[in-house]
Amino acid sequence: MDKIIRIGTRESQLAVWQATLVQQQLSQHGFASELVYIKSDGDIDLVTPLYEIGVQGVFTKTLDAALLSNRIDIAVHSMKDVPTQLAKGIVQAAVLPRASYKDILVYKGELSAINDQLSASNDHPPLGDRSFTIATSSIRRRAQWLHRYPHHHIDNLRGNVNTRLRKVEESNWNGAIFAAAGLERIGLRPANAIELDWMLPAPAQGAIMIVCNESDVFAKEACALLNDATTALCAKMERDFLRTLLGGCSTPISALAEVKDNIVYFKGNIYSIDGREKAETEKQTHTADIDAGTHAALEVLENGGRSIVETIRNAK
Fold it and tell me: Its domain of life (predicted)?
């Protein structure tokens, strides 16, 4: 195998970690490869909230262009950042086994004080200080948090994981929300972090996706050896749910599919931007039902989701 596979990656520590993982796994199958570093628009603009700059494809389109112009052979992405509709000429080559799908809160101060805030109900917010502030750039996390804690404030937080952790330390925020997988993969999950078990993740959160040019048979065959069928199935269902509801990832849509004994346990929801309204579904189906995500989305649309979708569309 004389051909060297060129792996395109963003320059952040997490992106490079993911690309290096793919490089190591390809090597285990006898394929030589090299990393090619490419800066994305999402890495350049670290001020504007993602939901204002149109997050769909913001971290992937530069790598897409590199693929289509033959500067790289494959690209590695956090799958939750990849648009549900891939660019013409680009195909999914593999999905690696999923890490944690959970969101975590990296908090500041005493855990007891944080727990007092988080245990308060919507109808009975804690007495005293009403300025409890959480930071996130995710419209999904923002909506879910405000639905549960409408008395809290949300600030914007951008940058790679290293930058965001530093901003939390330097700010007067009470905490910030991160994907557990991102911090854990590069050994940066701090001790002052708690899992948000009630928060449903972004579709495909925790999964790594490899894409390539649709005409590149060599790259497709090499990457197919790395594919995890169960993760790929669950991610497909979750992304089908997203696409059927609204089509973009700059929306407060969440989904999670898990397989146990050939049964898929699916949860999905959509919130209004302000978190006040919610439509959700929870169902079980067989792994053979590959369209389960689409069916779940149609159920949500018929049970309150359609009005939320229309409100979001009219607001753009």
Answer: Eukaryota
Specify the fold of 1-97+207-227.
D-Maltodextrin-Binding Protein; domain 2 (3.40.190)
pLDDT in tens, 253-265: 999 999 999 999 9
pLDDT in tens, 194-240: 999 999 999 999 999 999 999 999 999 999 999 999 999 999 999 99
Could you tell me if 109 and 174 are in contact, meaning their C-beta atoms sit under 8 angstroms apart? yes
- What is the rounded CA–CA span in Å between residue 151 and residue 257? 31
From-to residues of CATH 3.40.190.10 in the chain: 1-97+207-227, 103-195
For residue 17, pLDDT over 90 is answered with: yes
168, amino acid identity? V
| 255 contact partners, CB below 8 Å, separation of at least 6 | 200, 201, 202, 203, 237, 238, 239, 241, 242, 266, 267, 268, 269, 293, 296
* pLDDT for 248: 58
User: Looking at residue 81, what DSSP letter applies?
Assistant: G
Q: Over the range 212-247, which residues count as b (16 or more CB within 10 Å of their CB) and which as e? A: bbbebeebbebbeebebeebbbbbbbbbbbbbbbbe
- The residue among 302 and 41 whose pLDDT is bigger is 302
